[in-house]
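Example record

One chain of 174 residues, shown exactly as stored in the release files.
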Amino acid sequence: MVTLACRIIGAEHFDVIWLHNNKEIKPSKDFQYTNEANIYKLQIVEIFPEDAGTYTCEAFNDVGESFSTCTINVLVPGEEPKQPVITKFPSSVTIQEGERCQFICETQEEPLKLTWLKDGKPINESSTKYSFIKDGNRYTLVIKNCSIDDGGQYQVKAIGKKNETSSAFSVNFD
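Predicted structure tokens for this chain:
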């Protein structure tokens, strides 16, 4: 069993849904929604290769929405893991306007290319708003002075000779 958990604070009335690769997961015996106080969980009873991908916890009400995104990779015994292998995944954050934030991704071996995306589009690497740091197989994205426009869903994509691997995360504001 795999359990994803999301702590939601700051609102009294809201609905919560979970998504897999941007499609809503309907609660069932295989995918169970639970919550205790302000912790909302998705329990995946049995994990299969097709369950790999991006998972999002989305909380919404009449005022707006907030979400947290993560990636699940499923390793199958006896099969080679998808290359390139990400060994450190960037984490979602909740920040305040004007703050600096950074996201770190490490890979087992150097990919042919590594790309950072926001809301599905590559981030402009020539923009002065961002810093891109490479130190061996460690890649860092820095957002220097976060504004509301920086909120959204992000992804880092490591491209190898035959495959690509990605990891999703999100930026929310207090």
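Notes: Residues 33 and 42 are 5 Å apart (CA to CA).
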